[in-house]
Task: inverse folding
């Protein structure tokens, strides 16, 4: 009896939270196959941290448009960094089905995660290369949303807008046109 009630509650919870549309990022293959200044282990760690933050952000904001837009960017980038990252794959699948994921334990606070992204972006800028620059710009862009009070992230974001313009997130969220 208790099991049946628990199942009914879970089904009720899923039904109540449906009603949002999430355009899942589409990835055929990573744009970071070569020339990226990150080890595979680092790629997976960054992907997991992005996906965990995106998951919790969507849950906290009850899948509002801004949180879903952020999740699309973060999950797209995460899957380009590590296509088999468990948190990114699960969250993308749940959101694509209109299911609000459950909050997950995050390894970093938002403030720490944004600072980590800014610091890593600085290193990637120094390493030069097209892929490093692209990832650095994306990390800065995410950091500004993750911690809107991080002066270093805001400053770097504004400078990169001046130097390069707005980041085209379609490279991370849509299939390339053949």
Result:
């Amino acid at each position: 009896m208790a099991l049946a009630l628990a199942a009914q509650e879970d089904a009720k919870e899923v039904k109540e939270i449906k009603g949002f549309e999430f355009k899942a990022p589409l990835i055929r293959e990573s744009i970071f196959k070569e020339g990226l200044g990150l080890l595979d282990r680092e790629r997976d760690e960054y992907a997991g941290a992005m996906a965990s933050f995106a998951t919790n952000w969507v849950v906290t904001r009850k899948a509002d448009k801004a949180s879903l837009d952020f999740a699309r960017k973060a999950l797209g980038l995460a899957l380009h960094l590590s296509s088999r990252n468990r948190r990114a794959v699960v969250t993308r699948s749940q959101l694509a089905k209109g299911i609000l994921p459950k909050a997950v334990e995050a390894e970093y606070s938002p403030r720490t995660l944004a600072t980590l992204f800014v610091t890593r972006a600085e290193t990637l800028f120094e390493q030069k290369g097209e892929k490093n620059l692209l990832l650095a710009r994306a990390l800065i862009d995410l950091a500004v949303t993750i911690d809107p009070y991080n002066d270093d992230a805001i400053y770097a974001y504004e400078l990169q807008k001046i130097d390069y313009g707005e980041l085209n997130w379609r490279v991370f969220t849509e299939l390339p046109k053949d």
